[in-house]
Structure formats: C-alpha cells, structure tokens
Amino acid sequence: MSHRSRRLWRRSVGADGPGGAERLSQSLEAEASEQERFITEALADLRDMDVREVMTPRVDVTFLTIPVRAEDVAQAVRTSGHSCFPVVHDDLDDLIGLLFVNDIFRTNRPGSRVGVGGGGGEPRDATDPSPLEISRKVRQPYLLPETLGVLEALADMRKHRRAVAVVVDEHGGVAGLLTVKDLLEPLVGDLSDEFDEVEEAPIVRVDDTRWLIDGQTNVDDVRERIGIDIPDGEYVTLGGLLFERFGHIPTEGEEVRVGDWDMRVVEMDKRRVGQVLATFAGGEPGPEATPEVDNGPPDGKASAGGSGEEPG
Asked: Higher pLDDT residue, 30 or 240?
C-alpha cells in the first residue's frame, strides 16, 4: 500500500485527527469480534454438515467427453467460467479423471496454447494441443464419500494437497464436485470474486403470504428464514423435498402441501426444480419478513467460478 493510499484509508476510517488511533483500534476490534462470532457460530453448524450439502451437485457439473479437443475446453471455459472439468467416456458415472485448464498451458511444447476464439466447428489451430496431448494432462480423480463431514473433508483435502474432489454416493456413482472454496464458504461467508456471476437471492418475499424460493435452497435455510415446518429426511434442498413428496419428477404447476404451506413448482430446469412458490395456507398470517431479499450464501451450491483449480 502506498503512502497516499494509507492516508486515504486512515481518513476513511477516521484514524486521522484527535483520538483517531483510538477510534481506529476500537473499530478494528469491533469488526474482529463480529467476524469471530460469525466464524464460531458457523463452526458449530459445520460439525453436523456433510459434503453433499456444500458440493456442486451432479446436475450442475460441466464435463468433457473424450476425445477432448482444444476447442471443447475453450467452449467449456467460455460458457461456465470454470477452470477444472471432469473428463468422461459417456457420462459422469464413466469418469476418467479431472482436467485442470492450467495444466494445458503448462505444456512444454513451444508455442502451444489453447485457442479461445472459435467454436467447435472451426479448424484446429496448428499451435493448439491435440486430443492426445490433452489426454496426457488428465489427472486421476480424488474421491470423497458424500456422507463425509465438511470438517473431515477439509482436513483430508489439506492433507493430500487437493483443491478439487469428486464426491461419490453409496453406489459409487458421481454425486457432485467439491472444492476447498466450497468447504470454506460456510465458515467465512461468500467468497465470490470478480469472475463470479451475480446470483439472484434464493429466497424472495412476494407479499404477506407468498415466497419465491430457488429449488436448490437448503431446507435449513427455508426453515430458518420463512418458518416452514419441514421434517428431517434424506433430502438436502427444497427441490429434493418436493421430489420425495411427489414421488416423481414434477412438472410446472404441480402443487403439494408441506405443513401449513402450499408448494407450487413454477419453474423446472430440465429435471431439476428451479423455482417454487410457497403460499401460507394456515389460519394465521405468514411470518414477519426479515430483510426483503436474502443475500446470504446459497445452500451447498458450489461456487464454480473464479481463478485457481475449481470445478466445472
């Protein structure tokens, strides 16, 4: 930080002038105390949280199918903003490994690069790595069970120096992708950077009795924010709850009662519940609104943008 920048920062926090140093110290102590309280409370929650609650779920994972061409990688990076992608034969359950985009740029071949200009139909640039060269960069996947606790997973990935892990279910199928960033966000808050897209709030109050909820919202967040009495189950998200209640993949417009609330599916995203309209149908008015828009971190949805070795 330059001398001028330090002066501007001190002025912005009121550190200049009489008593400035004391005000600055009190301000920093208050901020540190608030952050410490936040982390302490989050740590208590993490002890009962497993990785399936924070991973990027299977339906949101962008993957590459062999043979992988340079233009395929470039297209995946452009559309997803990710820097790590599972490489598969046909689908995610036929996993070969993980491809980190940085590994392609680290190739020793002179003048090699990954083209980012053309689409898949354009001829390959002579300096682009071939599918064979790309296949040599695919790493063995690091596997973690979906029932592993978040703190245990963090310690395990740190021990083995892994930034990305593939999460598998009890049958060995791919359940999702997990990054160290996914594990840290519940502890320190949202770690979005300049590369992440601005996401809409997962829970928005429409009026006195109706709320619009993203289907991927964690059921614990729905309970806490709106007060819906959701029983415990094998589901993590609101969409998972609705899948269990309907017993099939719902269609837009289908409705089911959960406690004193009517849950209507208003938007489907392929085979996933996109948006749900929750309407209070009990005898008393709905709960008082806290902030009108919830800008807190979404439920277990993995942040997949930004720099570093993060998933696709």
From this structure: 240
